[in-house]
Amino acid sequence: MDEHALKQKLHEGKYHALGIRSKTNITKELVDSAPCLLTIGCFCIGTNQVDLSASLSRGISVFNSPFANSRSVAEMTISNIIALSRQLGDRNIEMHAGKWCKKSSECREVRGKTIGIIGYGNIGSQLSVLAEGLGMNVIFHDIRNTLPIGRAKFVGRLEDLLAAADFISVHVPETNETKALLNAEKIKLMKRNACLLNSSRGTVVDLEALAEALEAGLIGGAAIDVFPEEPTNGDGAEFRTRLAGCKNVILTPHIGGSTEEAQEAIGLEVATAMIRFLNEGCTLGSVNFPNLAIASTFLFETETGCRILNIHRNVPGVLSRINSILSEFNVEKQSLESRGHYSYLLCDVSTNTKDDMMKIFDRIYAIPESVATRLVY
């Protein structure tokens, strides 16, 4: 749906959960138009497309699946490294054009070569293991103090990694610090026959600078899966880039994580997290809420009892007022955590009647600082 159609749907007030992919933008206006919305599931890796602050201010928990496609991206990166080292993309194009061009010059094995991984998170570390299994030397650079896997070696300066690696693979999030992380100046530090691979975010590599380096023969090749501007997915969607036609360049339409296994894992992980939030108030895995969970055992062992959840502005005195309300009953479990300007409370309370449950709800709901209150059970 486009934004207008989605806004109309959400405004109907019938929808408690919303599932989206990476191309659907959830703005503050959309969030404010959804009176009943409780949770948003991003069935993808990133959450850049969602206004997380606006969602939190409305008590809407946002979930994603940050790790489910790590293996898929790592495997495709390995396949691209081998393809670039043997110039398989160019040979494939030539054969489809009816040209037989058998050659061994500038074609090499990957064994014994050095891969430099920029960003040693879930994908980067998996890539490290696969590359080492092929006999490659692994070096990596990360802004965090990360434990190396196997024989991988940490490199403190990005410039040193660029100068040492035969293959450079980028796996970082999109932030102000990573935009144009690999610009013309950085690309010039690479070895003459080195290859650059990016399957992270389209803004991380300056593609104009990369094209100039390729056309001048300063580097040996590239594999690019992500772009600063990407068209809406669909058969025949038009796409243009200066990299098209450059020697030994593999271009793919953002398919690093697009395997059946990854999509199934993403679907299960996000749907499960959303269901747990709706049924239990559990926020484990939420990207905008404090991560809280409490066991539901007592609710199933007693005939009466309720679970109340509350999002409120993080100011002094709110918890005291809530506990004053709850002091009339027996509190079985309680957990609270704050994030920035908001706090999230989960509480299990023993009650005698449903009227008592509603009294608890109504009184907590009426607290001026409350953003959202829900009676889960």
What's the short story on this structure?
This protein is α/β, with parallel strands linked by helices and 377 residues long. The protein is built from 13 helices and 14 strands. The strands form 3 sheets. Strands 6-5-4-7-8-9-10 form a 7-stranded parallel β-sheet, sandwiched between helices. It has a 4-stranded antiparallel β-sheet with strand order 12-13-11-14, with helices on one face. Strands 1-2-3 form a 3-stranded parallel β-sheet.
Please identify the oligomeric state.
single chain
Shape: elongated
Total count of helical runs of at least 4 residues: 13
Supply the helix-strand structural class: alpha/beta
Task: Tell me which CATH architecture of the largest domain applies here.
Answer: 3-Layer(aba) Sandwich
Give the percentage of residues in beta strands: 15-25%
Provide the residue-averaged pLDDT.
94
Task: Give the radius of gyration.
Answer: 26 Å
> How far is the first residue's CA from the last residue's CA?
33 Å
Number of strands: 14
How would you explain this protein's 3D organization?
The protein is an alpha/beta fold. It has three domains: 95 residues, NAD(P)-binding Rossmann-like Domain (Rossmann fold, 3-Layer(aba) Sandwich), CATH 3.40.50; 182 residues, NAD(P)-binding Rossmann-like Domain (Rossmann fold, 3-Layer(aba) Sandwich), CATH 3.40.50; 88 residues, ACT domain (Alpha-Beta Plaits), CATH 3.30.70.260. Helix content is 33%, strand content 19%. It has 13 helices and 14 strands. The strands form three sheets. The protein has a seven-stranded parallel beta sheet with strand order 6-5-4-7-8-9-10, sandwiched between helices. It has a four-stranded antiparallel beta sheet with strand order 12-13-11-14, covered by helices on one side. Strand 2, helix 3 and strand 3 form a beta-alpha-beta unit. 37% of the residues are buried. The model has no long low-confidence stretch (mean pLDDT 94).
